[in-house]
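I have been asked to look over a protein record a colleague put together. The record follows directly below this note.
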Amino acid sequence: MASLLSSFSRLTLTSRSSPSTSLRPAHLPARSQIRFAGILAPKRTKYRKAHKGRVPIPTGGSLKGTTLIHGSYGIRVKGNGMRLSAKQLMAADTALKRKLKVLKNAKIWLRVFPDIPVCIKVCSYARGQDQPLRVVQGNETRMGKGKGTFDHWACRYEHSSPSQILANIRTAVQRAV
């Protein structure tokens, strides 16, 4: 043990003069520079953009995502299958948390996760000499010139006879909800 300590005592720290070979700490971005940090988003994706795709229609009688797993209550989506954005999911989550804050041991589990990147192509053009530029998106954009830039994260939910459950809720008090 003494030989190990004596070998460390002989070491000295020296600084190098060239900045290219010195070890500098990596620049970490500030909290304001991280995009989409407050919303639900996947950490990594294989591709930046995805095809629009179709909402799957279960034909084999699958009941995946239609039963309660964690809590005693669930929120179902009624209507045809479509996409829900991450902002809509976070708004629903915060609204539920506000209502259930007064109850003890209330917990919410989101059963869906927004993992589909949605891209929107925005085209602005002048309609006339006296009219200002108009921003259009969706079906009014002109054809060509690529897919468009990333806009938001979304998740698909299926339309089936037993609807898919978006959130499970557990409460200790049964009558408050």
